[in-house]
Amino acid sequence: MSREQRRTYTNARSASGDELNTAAELEELSEASYDRSLFASLKVRDYLYLWIGMFGSAFAMNMQIVAQGWLVYEMSSSAVDLAWVTLASTVPQFLFSLPGGVLADRIPKKPIIGLAPIINCGATIVMTWIIFTGNVGFWEFVWVGFLNGTVMSLSIPARTAVIPEVVGERLMFNAMAFNTAAWNLSRILGPALAGYMIALLADGDTTSTFGVGCVFAVISALYLVSGVSVLLIKHDGQPTRQATSQHPLTDIGECLVYVIRSPVVGGLILLSILPFMFGLSINTLLPAFNRDVLFGGADDLGLLMTAMGIGAILGALLLAKLGGTRHKGYWVLGTSAVWGIGVTWFALSSTFSLAFLTIAFIGFVSSINMSMNRSLVQLQVDHAMRGRVMSIDMMSHGFMPLGVLPISWVSEVYGVSWGLALSGVILCVATIIMGTAMKGVRGIDTGYVSR
User: Fold this and answer.
1) CA pair distance 105, 124, nearest whole angstrom
2) Does pTM surpass 0.90?
3) Is the alpha carbon torsion for 227, 165, 373, 30 positive or negative?
4) What does 154-209 look like in DSSP terms, one character per residue?
5) Residue-wise pLDDT tens digits, 252-271
6) Which residues contact 67 (CB under 8 A, 6 or more apart)?
7) Which entry of 16, 72, 149, 343 is 20 to 30 Å from 249 by CA?
8) pLDDT of residue 24 exceeding 70
9) What is the rounded CA–CA span in Å between residue 90 and residue 227?
10) What is the distance between the alpha carbons of residues 237 and 50, in angstroms, rounded to a whole number?
């Protein structure tokens, strides 16, 4: 309920001589007044433009992963070169996420969010020209990947932290659900469009760079659309005065201490690390499982990836309707444990149909878990510290190799089914153990905090 609505209500009750129940009654009216429809957050003008911008950037990034991976491997036939190109875009997460969080808390967020896709657009246009002229090489993809990763690391904390400012806390779960849905939709359609364009325009010539150049031209346009959409946002995301009153390094130290000392925020971040280490092992090992266990081809692998994406979209849409549900702490713990059970169940699948249904279920549960966790973190944190906390959350995802590498070793020595089964069991058991110790997380109800 807005301040004006509350004032009108109070005056009306006073005029009629009725006694007010103050906070409790106003809170009840506030609960009744906010929009509970499926597309509630998208009805907020600023969030709609923010969402379009995020969708455009995510679509561009997923197209770029396929296009650059295809061309790099065609040029070098080296898996190591592919790994270096991937690392070029992921290493900046460790280097620049925290500075990005400090920026989000110290200066207006809108310029950060709008400038990022424009920079990526300019870099992609340069890359498009290099590809069309036939002068493209391995290092061009490295520097573009590093630039894209740096820009993303500096801007995502601001983009994520501005969401509750735009939609309000009551629509946070709905908005984060649509963020997740957009990401998964782009993960399905982006690679498909890039692959189709390369196949169509290359006309069977696998060494042709023309198709990849056209894909990069489309990527440039998508980044431009993303940047322009931010210009249409009215909210500028001004920081609080407290966030600019000290040295940036002090800001970082203050946030780290806050996360470590907070049983709820620290607990939620730890619970987000666990699935990245053991729940997402299925993404890495899926090609091996498809070939060695299901004896499937490239088309079967594509169907399994599509099933996971569709399940994730459905999970995000369900979460969009679950914003008002209670006992969200148990929801986070429960979906994490069930995620682990799903991975183990998938590892035991011996037929394609069972694997298809199971991986769709995993996508469904994982989408709810990750979106709800991130929403709860933002709702628990003070406005002045949201950018920095979200940057720590983003950095924590870099722990994924600590789980994937040993699980991959087990898969190589004992078989991919054993590796995935072990990964799922660890996720489930570790979630139960951590949940037992995390009283603060278990105590989260609606997730909304009175300021």
Assistant:
1) 29
2) no
3) negative
4) HHHHHHHHTHHHHH-GGGHHHHHHHHHHHHHHHHHHHHHHHHHHHHHHHTT-TT-S
5) 888 888 888 888 988 999 99
6) 194, 198, 212, 215, 216, 219
7) 149
8) no
9) 22
10) 12
